[in-house]
Q: What sequence folds into this?
């Protein structure tokens, strides 16, 4: 097994999951509420999950998906696939083209490869620490704005509505609302935005693929206090994250720490 094989499997999974979702119409799809958190889920989520589980994990590899019952055996696996069949289900339901299929691969708790595909916009971002990142087949990388450039930051609409971004709407930062967490991270990795961060908890399936992509593209993903996030935890949740190029990460410094 080589990294090129992993990338090929990621591409295959993204395309197959998109095909599984295609019969469902964004903006006109039935949904239910999950019993645990009340988050929406559709038959499209389940269809994509089934396809990804068939394609991705091989013998000896672990599996973690938002739409599958967690199998604790993943904790003893060195290679674990972490997926969100549709990241941004709310946007999918509302017909907002800011959702994606997200596939990440961990090796010994480290995100090493990933891919996101937004079928609504046709954007495909794939990469690994060894191979770098491509955006729709072309080599891509994070931006490195200088000290006077405006920094474009992708932010959660719900966080913006709650006022959590009020301190950043003036000055150097241009805050743009965007849906899916994985999609935001993919756009940063592809150089379509300078940064994204959140100060509220996120699940591993939201960020593993995007973390691999941002790092493969030359960027940094840390917790808000600068610590390295670790993955494949028993409870796959961590408090926050910051993702950007090296220059923006340094410029942020302690700005987010303690907020």
A:
């Amino acid at each position: 097994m080589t990294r090129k094989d992993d990338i090929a499997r990621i591409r295959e999974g993204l395309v197959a999951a998109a095909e599984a979702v295609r019969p469902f119409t964004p903006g006109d799809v039935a949904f239910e509420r999950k019993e645990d958190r009340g988050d929406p889920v559709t038959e499209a989520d389940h269809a994509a999950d089934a396809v990804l589980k068939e394609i991705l994990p091989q013998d000896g590899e672990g599996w973690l998906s938002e739409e599958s019952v967690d199998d604790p055996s993943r904790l003893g696996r060195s290679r674990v696939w972490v997926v969100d069949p549709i990241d941004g289900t709310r946007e999918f339901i509302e017909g907002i083209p800011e959702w994606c299929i997200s596939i990440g691969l961990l090796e010994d708790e480290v995100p090493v490869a990933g891919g996101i595909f937004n079928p609504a916009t046709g954007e495909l971002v794939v990469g690994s620490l060894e191979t770098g990142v491509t955006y729709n087949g072309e080599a891509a990388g994070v931006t490195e704005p200088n000290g006077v450039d405006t920094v474009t930051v992708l932010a959660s609409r719900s966080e913006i509505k709650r006022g959590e971004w009020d301190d950043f709407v003036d000055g150097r930062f241009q805050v743009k609302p965007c849906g899916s967490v994985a999609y935001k991270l993919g756009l940063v990795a592809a150089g379509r935005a300078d940064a994204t961060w959140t100060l509220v908890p996120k699940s591993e399936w939201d960020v593993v693929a995007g973390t691999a992509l941002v790092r493969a593209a030359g960027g940094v993903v840390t917790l808000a206090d600068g610590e390295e996030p670790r993955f494949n935890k028993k409870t796959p949740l961590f408090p926050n994250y910051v993702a950007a190029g090296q220059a923006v990460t340094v410029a942020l410094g302690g700005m987010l720490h303690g907020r």
User: Anything to note?
Assistant: The mean pLDDT is 93.
